[in-house]
Amino acid sequence: MDLDLRVTAKEPAADGIVTLTLQDRHRRRLPDWESGAHIDVVLPGGLTRQYSLCGDRWDAHSYRIGVLREPDGRGGSAHIHDRLAVGDPVGLGGPRNNFRLTPSPRYLFIAGGIGITPILPMLRDAEILGADWELLYGGRGPSSMAFLDELGRYGDRVTVQTSGLLDLQAWLGRAGAATTVYCCGPAPLLRAVQELCTGRLRTERFTAEPLPGAARDLPFDLELRRSKTTLTVRPGQSILQAVTGAGIGVLSSCAQGLCGTCETTVLDGVPDHRDALLDDDERATGDRMFICVSRSRSPRLVVDL
Amino acid sequence: MKALDADPFSHETLDDPWPMHETLREAGPVVHLSRYDVYAMARYAQVHAALVDWQSFPSAAGVGLSNFRYEKPWRPPSLLLETDPPGRDAPRAVLSAVVGPRALRRLRQEWHAAAADLVDHLLAGTGGEVELDAVTALAEAFPLRVFPDAVGIPREGRENLLPYGDHLFNAFGPANDLVRNGQERAGELTAWVNAQCRREVLAPDGFGAAIWAAADRGDLTVEQAPLVVRSLLSAGVDTTVHGLAAVLYAFATHPAQWERLRHSPELARVAFDEAVRWQSPVQTFFRTADRDVLIGDVTVPSGAKILMFLAAANRDPRRWRDPARFDLGRDPSGHVGFGMGLHQCVGQHVARLEAEALLTALAARVRRIELAGRPVPHHNNTLRAWKSLPVHLALD
Ligand SMILES: Cc1cc2nc3c(=O)[nH]c(=O)nc-3n(C[C@H](O)[C@H](O)[C@H](O)COP(=O)(O)OP(=O)(O)OC[C@H]3O[C@@H](n4cnc5c(N)ncnc54)[C@H](O)[C@@H]3O)c2cc1C
Ligand code: HEM
User: Which CATH number fits domain B2-395: 3.40.50.970, 3.40.710.10, 3.40.50.880, 1.10.630.10?
Assistant: First the structure.
C-alpha cells in the first residue's frame, strides 16, 4: 500500500509562512507520529526537505506542516510557497523524531519564529499528561508569528513576545531543577539557550546535511544478488511489491516503514530512505534499508536478496 | 448483528479454538458475545483496521476483559500495552531502541552459538535417534537460556518467569478457574518480578540496564524504568516459548515443510512467522470503544469491550488462501500475530532472532522430526500453548 500524498489545503499562517495539509488521495491513514516528529517532503523534481508535524495526531488522515519562506535557500521553501498547489502530489519520508517529549513534571518551551511548529503539538501532550508548563514564543511582530490564534486557548501559560530579544536569563533562571526545557528556533537563540540553561535541555535545529542528489521519480534497476535477478522498479511501486511480485519471498509486516521487519542489506547503490527507523547517520551509511517504503537515488541498486 | 453464546475461555474452546473462530468469523464483521457482554471481531479486515485505529479503540481501559474505566487493575497497568498516547510515547521509544534490530545485532552470533550448543548437548551420545519433549527441552530451554541473560536478571528464581507470565496472560480473560488457580501464587510471583526490575540487581550490559540508562538521560522517569523492565519480563518469555512450540509442532506435523527448511535454511524467519500466523501464540486481546463506533451497520457503544481474535484473523479465508495449512511457500507478511499499529509487538525482532537461531541449529543436525506421542495442550485464557510435545528426532 503505497501512500499517495496530496496537498489538500494551503493557507497563509503569517507573513512568509504557509501551512499545508497533506492527505492520502484515497483518505487512507497516515503513519502515526509523536510530538516533535518531522517528515521528509519530497517535492516534484526530487528536492527533499524536512518539516515538523504541527497538526493533530488524533486525526489519522492528515498531516499539517508550517513552512517559512527562506529567501537565501536553495529553493525548497520557495517552491512550496510559489509553486506547490492544492491537489499536487508530494513524496513522504518518515515520520522521524529527534525531539521527543520526555516525561517531566514541568516544561519550559521556548520557540523562536517558525520553531513553534514542533512545539505546538507538545503543548497538548503536556496538558493531557497533567504537567505544569509554560511557552515563551518570540518573533518579529504579530503578523509574522504563526498559530497565535491557536495558542490563545492556553491563556497565560503562553507568553508571546513580538519584539526585542527574549529575556532568557530571567526565564531560564526561574526554571528550576524539575523543569525540562525544549527549544526550537534560529541558531542564535539555540546557542543562547544552550549557554544559559543549567538543567535538562532538548533542542531541535532546522538544518540537515544535504542529501546526495535528488530523489528519483524515474524507474530504477534493482539487482537481487543472491537470487541472481534484476528487476525494474517503477515509480509508484515499492521495492517490496516488485520483489514479491517476482516470486521472491521477503518477510514484511506494517508496510509503512515503521516496524522494521523488512530490513534489507544494501550491497551497492544509494538508497532513498523513507522509513521512520534509521537516524541520519545510519541513513548516510546506506548499508541497510526498509524496502516497504524506501527507494533508490541511484539508477541501480543492489541488495542482498 | 448476531449475538452468540460462545465461550472463548472455556476449556473446550481452549482445547480446540478453531471451530469457534470459524463460527464467529462467519457470523459477521462484528458480533456480540452475550456471556460476557462484549463485542468480538474475527475477520482479518476488521481486526486489522481496529488494531491500527488506536483513536477509536484505545488500550488504556485494559486489553483484557476487565474494564479499567470501572474496575481497578490487578497490577499497576503496563506503560506500553495498557497506555495510550501521549503517555506511552516515551516508554515505547525507549524500549523500541533497547530491543530493536540495531541492539540485537550484537546478540546475533551469541544466540546462534547458544542454540547450536543447546542442540549439540541434547543430541550428544544419542546415536542416530532421540526422543524428547520439544516444549521443555527446546521451546522453554532456549529462551530461558538466552533471554533472561540478555535482560540481565540474576539466575536465582528464574523458574518464576513462566508461571508469572502464565498468570498474567490468564488475567486478560474472565475470572475463571485458570485465574483462580493462579491467584494463590500471584502475589509472590509479582513481588519476585518487581524485585528483578530494580537497577541494583540488573547486569550492567543488558536490556534492563539500558532501560535504566535511558532514565538517567531523562528519556524516562526513575518511576517508569522498573515498569518498562517489567514489560520485558511479562511479555517476552511465555510468548516466545509458545511461539517456538508452535513452530516445532508445525514441523513435527508437516515433514515436507521440514525437508524444505533443511534444503533452504534461510527460510527460518518465514517459517517462524508462518507458524505465528498459523497458531497465533497470542490468540486475543481486547480493546475498548472510545466513543460510539460504527462498524458496518453495527454501533459499538462507548466503553464497550471488544475482543479481537488475532488467531481468527490469521486464518480468515477472505485474506489467506488455504489458511489452515502451514506452508513455507506462503508469504505470511501482514499477519496480526504480533498485533498491528501503535501497540504492535515491540519484541518481535527478539522473537524472530530466537526462532531463527534455534531452527537453524536444528536444521543443521536433524534430518526428520515427528510426533512421538499425543501433544498435550496447556490452557491459558490468552495464549495458545502446549504442556508437552513428545517428538522423535532422526539425526544426520
Ligand atoms: C528536523 C527538521 C525540521 C524542520 N522543520 C521545519 C518546519 O517545521 N518549518 C520550516 O519552515 N522549516 C523546517 N525545517 C527547515 C526546512 O527543512 C528547510 O531547510 C527550509 O524550508 C529551507 O529550505 P530551502 O530549500 O528553501 O532552503 P535551504 O537550501 O535548505 O537553505 C536553508 C538555509 O541554509 C543556508 N544554505 C543554503 N544553501 C547552502 C549551502 N550550499 N551550504 C550551506 N548553507 C546553505 C541558507 O542560507 C538558508 O539559511 C526543518 C528542518 C529540519 C532538519
Ligand atoms: C512469538 C512471540 C511473541 C508474540 C506472538 C507476541 C505478541 C504480541 C502482540 C499480539 C502484541 C500486541 C498487543 C496489543 O496490540 O494490545 C504484543 C505487544 C508487546 N510485546 Fe510481544 N509477542 C511476542 C514476543 C515478545 C517479546 C520477545 C517481547 C520482549 C522482548 C515482547 C514484548 C511486547 C511488549 C512490551 C508489547 C507491548 C507493546 C505496546 O503496547 O506498545 N513480545 N506482543
Answer: 1.10.630.10
